[in-house]
Amino acid sequence: MLDMMLDSDPTVFGAGEMSTICRHVWPNNEYCSCHERVQDCVLWSKIMADWQAGGVDLAEHARLQRRIEPVVSPARYLGGKSWRQYYDQTLALMRLSAQHAGQPVLLDSSKSPGRGLALARGAQADGLDMRVIHLVRDPRAVAYSMSKPMKVDTAAGVQKKLRAHPVARTALRWNFVNSGADALMRLIPEGHAIRVRYEDLVADPAATLRAIGEAVGLDLADLGNRIAAGEAIAAEHQVAGSRIRMSGPMSLKADMNWQDRMSPSAQRQVERLLGKRMRRYGYS
Ligand SMILES: [Zn+2]
């Protein structure tokens, strides 16, 4: 959703969760948010053709990702040839994406902080202007959302069967992933990273986008005001991500269903497991 919002700025290409391209989106020819299969998409077909023409083997790149992008990755800390190859190829994909989209700012909304950690390491040496937005949501809402199963519906943006996950599993995963995101934030120069709470974004998109704009070096005040006034947002060529990217223009609406529908005992279970980090992010 934040990717869709920022994609509405004329200088930003909201590319979606780019880490999934080699892993499953391209090999399975899944849907782009323009409703074309990705190999037929007018934009991604060109990006991927140029990337492969530059010598990238997609299966090999996916293998590199499996070693380097986990939150804890010995291969990433050791550096060396495979990390360099991963970094150079990922950067080439990002540059081609921004170039073909005709927008100077590329937004990769991949959720794994491991991908950010892998890129931040090289960005400092390369002078790449990398900014980080750490979007966090109340873990009770995340656990409630993940407790609902979902069937495959590729055209509607659900690429694989989603099992119902136990609350404790989601809570522990939330803690692990967000600890990785915190580690990533510490690697980014002062003022170039921001933590945003989903709840603040939907309650006051104008103020939140203004703050994001300051961290990423863009003036997003006007965009924030328009979205706050109800202007619809839509994904243009998001290559993967939440199913809402397939639903066409939509205006921002808070999803706080969990507050009424999640059992008090499940809520308490999350609070018991995550109290410390929840308080740090400002959740009561
Ligand atoms: Zn497309």
TrEMBL record:
One Gene Ontology biological process: sulfur compound metabolic process
This protein's name: Sulfotransferase
Keywords: Transferase
Statement: the UniProt record of this protein carries the keyword Transmembrane helix: no
UniProt KW Acetylation keyword: no
SUPFAM superfamilies: P-loop containing nucleoside triphosphate hydrolases
Any one GO molecular function term: N-acetylglucosamine 6-O-sulfotransferase activity
Pfam families membership: Sulfotransfer_3 (PF13469)
